[in-house]
Amino acid sequence: MSHAAADRAGLAARKAALSILSHVLRQRRPLDTQLDALKTLSPRDAGFARALASQSLRHFGALDATIRHFVPKPLAPHKAGAATEILLLGACELLILKGAAHAAVDAANNLAAADGKAVHFKSLINAVLRRMSREGASILAALDAPRLNTPDWLWTRWSAQYGDDIAHAIAAAHGREAPLDICLKQDGIAAPQGVTMAGLSRRIDETARVEELDGFSQGHWWVQDVAATLPVHLLGDVAGKRAIDLCAAPGGKSLQLAARGADVTSVELDPVRGARIRENLARMGLNADVVESDVRDFDGTAPLVLLDAPCTATGTIRRHPDLPWIKGAADVTAQASLAYDLLESASAMVEPGGLMVFAVCSLEREEGEEQIAGFLAAHPEFARVPLTADDVYGHSEWISAEGDLRTLPCHLADMGGMDGFYAARLRRQ
Which of 13, 62, 63, 371 has the maximal Cβ count within 10 Å? Predict the structure, then answer.
């Protein structure tokens, strides 16, 4: 294929990436909801578009600072149209994906020519990206990328909670894509080769589609980050016991409980997500009673209750690089308030002497540590059951000063990191 033909073939992918990026940055639409637009592209183009959009967001702060080196004054969107996003995609292609300079520059020119407003900035875009292809890498290398890729609303919270050094390590972890973790149904069954992380969790070094991996169709394992497997482990031996899994989708924790022999009721509000839990249970050959209900309306009790509460999910930025740029501090407050409502409802389901585990995939204190402090102050009938090293497979660095679970994206850094999770284990007296 000639250079010109190859560049034209990639133009559809870059157009799709531009549309995705504009929706995320201007309308604060989650990246996941925009990826449907890639279905019309060839697998190769779809993969390129996804990489271009997600890496532009993952490295947004540092790329933006590099662009500012050449264009100190931000372009006014009402005049420049998509020019800023075109520059961002070009910078990402040149500096992060290390694409051919002529292809990235030509594509940016074509994208600008097709936009009624950006067309007036075509010569600027062309000049900036040509200079960037020569000088950009050294400018980018001199920046504190982890700090720049973390918006102030998150950085101030993390440095206050964890200190500057750990905040920086968390931010650096977000610069790398999350590896693929799977959870085995039981030990010793056919599964892709990988590194054992904790218990039945394996980290897989595979590039094939998940559905094509060894043991998937036979129902030997499911996809679940190692950190997300820990809250179920805090419930101890669940065999033969009744357990309620609240806010159960996508269903990994219900699968864990069922595989360990619990009698599981999975409560999920969203019918589409509820159907997905049923599909996964069927594939795995496991049983759970899936109930579509709001946690606040569900009427049932059990000796074991697990609430993985809705949250801002700032512990999963490695998987969702758009998240820092579409959420803000107000979302933390709103989610914390909703989650506390659900925690109150969940606590009423715990039978005397029973255990409740409250978990969130958030790094924010208001959604984790402060929820439990507030709950225990208001509920003397519950007491914290502090974690031991055995509860976390010997990783005592995952245990907070109060005795709760607190994993960070920079934990297991030499193995590729993990999601940030908080979980507390409480017993009803």
Answer: 63
How confident is the model over 175-212, as pLDDT tens digits?
999 999 999 999 999 999 999 999 999 999 887 889 99
Helix, coil or strand: residue 176 = coil
Tokens describing residue 268:
């999920």
Q: What residues does 356 pair with on adjacent strands?
A: 305, 426
- Closest listed residue to residue 122, CA positions, set 105, 140, 136: 105
- Span 3-143 CATH architecture: Orthogonal Bundle (1.10)
State the pLDDT at residue 207. 78
Tell me if 3-143 shares its fold with 180-428.
no
> Cis omega (within 30 of 0) on the bond before 250?
yes
Q: At what angle do helices 252-259 and 226-233 cross, to 10 degrees?
A: 50
- φ, ψ (nearest 5 deg) of residue 71: -130, 85
Please tell me the distance from the alpha carbon of residue 231 to that of residue 424, in angstroms, as a whole number. Answer: 8
DSSP H or E segment with residue 305: strand 302-308
The rounded distance, in Å, linking the Cα atoms of 277 and 251 is 5
Q: Amino acid identity of 240?
A: G
Residue reference for tokens 């080196």: 69
**385 neighbors 337 (Cβ within 8 angstroms):** no
Tell me the C-alpha distance between 39 and 36, whole Å.
Answer: 6
This prediction's pTM: 0.94
Domain 180-428 has CATH 3.40.50.150: yes
First to last CA, the chain: 72
Question: Domain map of the chain by residue range?
Answer: 3-143, 180-428
Length of the chain: 429
